[in-house]
C-alpha cells in the first residue's frame, strides 16, 4: 500500500442533497421550508445533488419531481453557484431507486435521444460531475458507453463517481446487474472514486471489515478512491450507524492505511443527526473536523519521520 502523503482531497466530506424542502418545519419560502446548503461552505468538499432522472415518456430530465428549471429550484441553483464559487464541487446524482434512467433511456437504441437532454443540463447548470447510482439491471457495455461519452464531452476534469452498494465491490449482492470489478478493470481510469452505500443490508461501515475487504479485493482498490456513504438518520432506511461509529471506523482505517482514506458521504442532508432537521449541517461539521484531525496527524507523522531520519548517529 502507498504510504506516501495522500492528496488532501482524498479526505472527502460529501453530502447528498435530495430534500430541497423540509415540510416538517415552518415555511420560509413560497414552496415551503427551503433547506439551505450555505452552512456547508468551508465544511464539505462535495455536494451530491440528488436525484436526476431521465423520463422515458416525454424525453425529459427531472430533478426529483420537477424539471431542473422549475421555479421550485431557483433558490437552490443560486446557492449552488455560491458553493461552487468557494471551491465546493457539485456532482449530480443520476438514477437511484426509481427505474427508467439507465434502462430504457440509456440503452443503445435510445441513447442518442435522451443523453443530449441530460448533457444540456450539465452545461446549463455548470455541474462538476455525475454520480451514477445504477439501481436497475444495466449491461456493462451500456455503463461503459455512458462513462466514455461523458468524459469525451466534458473533459478530464469532469468528475465521474459510481454509487454501488458496498457488497457489489466485492462481487457480492448488487443492484446494477453488471460486475463492478470488470467495470473498474475496463474504465477505472475514468472513475474518480466510488461512493459505496454501506447500509440497507449491503454491508456496514462499522466495524471496518467490509471497507478493508473492498480495498483488498482482487487487484485492490486504492483507499483514496473509496468513499463510505452512511445514513445520516435512522429515518433514511435500514442500516443506520451513529456518527461516533462512523468516526471510530475513520480513525481505525486511518491508522491501518497510513492516512490514505477516501472520505465519507452522508445520505442525506436535511435531517442529518446529530443536529436533526433544525441543524442538519452538524453531521458535516463533525465529519470535517475528523478529516482535519486526520490531516493534522498525518502531517505530524510525516514531520516526526523526517526529523528522525535527520538525526545523525552519535560518534564515539
Ligand atoms: C448481481 O446480482 C444479481 C442478482 O440480483 C446476480 O444474478 C448477479 O450475478 C450479480 N452480478 C454480479 C456481477 O455479482
Ligand atoms: C489523531 O491522533 C490522536 C492522538 O494520537 C488520536 O487520539 C486521534 O484518534 C487521531 N485522529 C484521527 C482522526 O486519526
From TrEMBL:
| Single Gene Ontology BP annotation | carbohydrate metabolic process
Q: Does the keyword Membrane apply?
A: yes
| Top-level lineage group | Eukaryota
Transmembrane segment boundaries: 31-52
Q: Does the keyword Ion transport apply?
A: no
- Every copy of the GH18 domain together lies at 11-294
User: Which InterPro entries does the protein's record reference?
Assistant: GH, Glyco_hydro18_cat
What keywords sit in the KW lines? Answer: Membrane, Transmembrane, Transmembrane helix
What protein does this entry describe? Endo-beta-N-acetylglucosaminidase
